[in-house]
Design goal:
This protein is of the alpha/beta class and 200 residues long. It has six helices and nine strands. A seven-stranded mixed sheet has the order 3-2-1-4-5-9-8, with helices on both faces. The longest helix has 15 residues.
Length: 200
């Protein structure tokens, strides 16, 4: 866990999630599972999914003593998410992953069915107004960038404007209840946008 996640990402996400004791939470694009394990230690019943079977294997090995259910699941595939069970989760979360997902419309549509009534979806993502390597804002597009210093292959990022981030939520019955813009080193240009949406 680095300072960026510790200082910028997690505080806003945890504030929006609220009390998670006994809650059934879906962690979308869980990566190595560190956040999933934290939620489990705090008393949540966690199902964590990722498209990469290698990352799921790492998460299972690293957090084998946790009670997290780690599963390979394609977040861009509506049926894949629905296979987890309709109205199963009280909350869903995604930390710094939406900009890595090629299609969020299918994911949000599926979330409207796997979440319970009044369920929450909390996500943190790169702030689309300030964190991008291109000069286009309104048009959805992808671009290549370095996620970790020295990585052998560049990472694919998917840029979406604020309206493209929020429209799938509104179209599937979500209302935005909270929004935070948090900064890391430059205190006037936020790095992270964190959103709390409720299924109504």
């Amino acid at each position: 866990l680095n300072d960026y996640h510790r200082q910028v990402v997690r505080p806003a996400v945890m504030e929006f999630l609220g009390n998670i004791t006994g809650e059934s939470i879906l962690d979308i694009a869980c990566g190595n599972g560190s956040f999933s394990a934290l939620l489990s230690r705090m008393g949540a019943k966690v199902t964590a999914i990722d498209y990469s079977d290698q990352l799921i294997d790492i998460a299972k090995m690293r957090w084998k003593e946790s009670h997290v259910e780690f599963l390979v699941c394609d977040a861009t595939n509506e049926e894949s998410i629905l296979s987890l069970g309709e109205h199963r989760f009280s909350k869903a979360v995604s930390t710094m992953a939406l900009m890595d997902i090629s299609d969020i419309k299918s994911m949000v549509k599926a979330l409207s069915r796997v979440l319970k009534h009044n369920g929450l979806f909390v996500f943190a993502t790169q702030h689309p107004c300030f964190v991008t390597l291109t000069d286009r804002y309104m048009t959805e597009h992808s671009y290549q960038g370095e996620a970790i210093t020295g990585q052998p292959v560049q990472h694919t990022y998917y840029h979406r404007s604020l309206q493209d981030l929020f429209s799938p939520l509104f179209e599937n019955g979500f209302a935005i209840e909270g929004l935070k813009e948090t900064c890391f080193k430059d205190k006037e240009h936020p790095d992270v946008l964190t959103v709390k949406a409720k299924l109504i």
